[in-house]
Design a protein that fits this description.
Elements (H helix, E strand, L loop, with lengths): L9 H14 L3 H10 L10 H6 L25
Helix pairs in contact: 1-2
Length: 77
């Protein structure tokens, strides 16, 4: 199973957390269920062609793994 990091506004994060809590499921499971529900949350036709149309080369997945997460010192938080 792949792991993704998403950046959203504080407002969106708060709403998603509230909705997940209301649904009684972990946040990650709630977000996945929203993404998998394509009928209700479908991308507009041609969205990715318009948004990523400037990409002309095939981009492959990097061969090296990301480094393990480290805990930042309090002074850098």
């Amino acid at each position: 199973m792949a792991q993704l990091n998403l950046y959203v506004t504080d407002k969106v994060a708060a709403r998603l957390k509230r909705e997940a809590r209301r649904a009684g499921v972990p946040l990650s499971r709630y977000v996945v269920s929203r993404l998998e529900d394509g009928a209700e949350h479908d991308w507009p036709a041609g969205f990715f062609q318009k948004a990523c149309g400037f990409l002309r080369e095939k981009i492959s997945e990097p061969g090296d793994r990301l480094p393990e997460a480290v805990e930042l010192p309090e002074s850098l938080r």
